[in-house]
Amino acid sequence: MASRLVVRFDDIAPNMAWPTFERVIEICERYGVYPLLGVIPDNRDPELLAYPRREDFWSVVRDLQGRGWGVAQHGFQHVIRSRMGGLFGVNGFRSEFAGVPISEQRECVSVGAAVLRSAGLHIEAFMAPWHSFDLATVAALKEADIFAVTDGYSSFPVEYGGVLLVPQMTERVLPVPWGVQTVCYHWNAATEGSLRDFERFCAKNQARLVPFRDVLGGGLGAALGTVDRCAGRAALAALRARRRFFQLYDK
Ligand SMILES: [Zn+2]
Prior knowledge:
Elements: E1 4-12, H1 18-31, E2 36-39, H2 46-49, H3 57-66, E3 70-73, H4 102-118, E4 125-126, H5 135-143, E5 148-150, E6 158-160, E7 163-166, E8 180-185, H6 192-205, H7 220-250
Parallel strand pairs: 1-2, 1-8, 2-3, 3-4, 5-7
Antiparallel strand pairs: 6-7
Helix pairs in contact: 1-6, 4-5
This protein binds zinc ion.
Zinc ion binds at residues 10-11, 74, 78, 129.
């Protein structure tokens, strides 16, 4: 038994290291891998804007989603609005959301979602820049009809404040025989070596790699469902045994 693996790509925007990304697309096609793309609705990050721009960006992403890839809203502008770590405290010095007033967060989420939806994309999840968001973000996401987040420390997806947190713990695969793990890639800084490693990873884990949407219904809910069913059966058996005991005793 082995945990299921989801692959996510961060920092997907019109300005990217396109030659690298095109090779990544080829590798994914070769191994039947359907990653979750973290698409920045309105990229204003100066570091990311330094990469070459592709004018047909939105049709490229639409095409990938049409072929089964997932799309997550990766923040709004990918800029630093606070220095808070948020719920997980992963990057205590950079955040676009954590600690930001809820009215501002609401606007960032809803305007960003509108950009992606008007480009014809279906938003399957939220991907917080620098893994940093708070409860106000969760509230804003629900208002924008986004109910899954690719972040969290658990073995299975867990419900939190009305959204489903799909675990994203490290950039490597942990030797855990159950649950769901998300492996995170940033392609703009990739080398030949990282492309080779990714291809080896896809070849080795082909049977375990699933699209993001496949883990939404089958995580903790399903596991708890199984536990509930087992507990229910055990309780019923106990009740019947008790009834039999008292029937015997009464005689
Ligand atoms: Zn990012």
